[in-house]
Amino acid sequence: MNKTKIGIIGLGTVGSGVFKTLKNFSNIEIVKISVKNLDKPRNIDGLDKSLLTDNSMEIVNNPDIDVVVELMGGVNPAYELLTEAIKNGKHIVTANKELLAKHGEELFTLAEKHNKVILYEAAIAGGIPLIMPIKTILAGNKINKIHAILNGTTNYILTKMDTDGVSYEEVLKEAQELGYAETDPTGDVEGFDAAYKITTLATIAFGKRVKIENVYREGITKIRKEDMAKANELGYKIKLIATATIDEQDRADVRVHPMLVSKNASLAHINYVTNAIEITGNPVGTVVLSGAGAGEFPTASSVVGDILAINSEINKNEYILPMMRCRHESNAIPVKIEDTFNKYYISITAPNAIGVIAKIGTICANKNISLSSILQKEVFENNNAEITVITEKCQEKLIREVVEELKNCTVDSIIRVAE
Question: N or C: less crowded end of the chain, CB within 10 Å?
Fold first, then answer.
């Protein structure tokens, strides 16, 4: 049996899961593994330390290695390493969502030039099968809409805020103690992680390149426990949603931000660290894929699946896995956030005075914004009132103008409402 020889860059959580999983496959041989620290204790049974190196170029330049598996994350030096690996005739498997979002076009173009494939099933939704189904089973569809929960850390925080009625700060501290959130959680809670993922996912699903710089991003740090309570009363849950739509003119609206999601919607019931992707296309309709979006073995499952896909064709065909290759010939036309149309939840603190609610209604009416509901429930000791407004669908830039005109009022929260 001819074994496919691989080199692994990175032996952290995912790399360890890949190593442990690959022990079950006699047709795969791990030739070398690069790590940051050769002396770091590793709780991995059967790890031959002679496989380890702290020089990733040993893997990239090794003529015996067929596939480079990049699990280190980040842009540098990953981009330089994979560029060199492709030039040296290696196929690539990666779980690096940031690298793909920022440099996917260059890498895929280079890979095609050298007749190599880049597979990245693990880069978007961990253990959830997504890229290969889109490229194969759903290939006959015109996909025009994606709504997804793509970050387990933020979904855990929002779920705990909802179920326990506590603040963002309290839950973040707990999530860090449990290992669900990093010491520096910025990449997750400010929406960067989900933005990288939806950039690549929209590019694949729509068949048009989406640029990361055109993806609107807003995190969860301003969500209050009061917003959670109000959303529940109104029949919603608050989730960090990665959303992408494209129209017949190839205008793509791709963004990440909190949304009020109806309790009748499937994504409203995706809780804690679970991820889910809702894909809408013709003729399939709507398909929902859900499961573990991260973790040692769920992510390793996708990485190993990609390795085995390459193994099944390597040395058998000159041009392997044609359906999995990049076929993008043009860019999507970006839609700016201020030009989008949404429904809005607005929480306002205003003086408890005659005519305040009427004034809010008038300001909205002057912008041709219809209100679905306007509600005052509570008056505080300082004689300020809490007012909640839900608008009908309207243009984002008009909502911003309304906020500017709400003098003598404090706008505590503005959250878009999912359709």
Answer: N
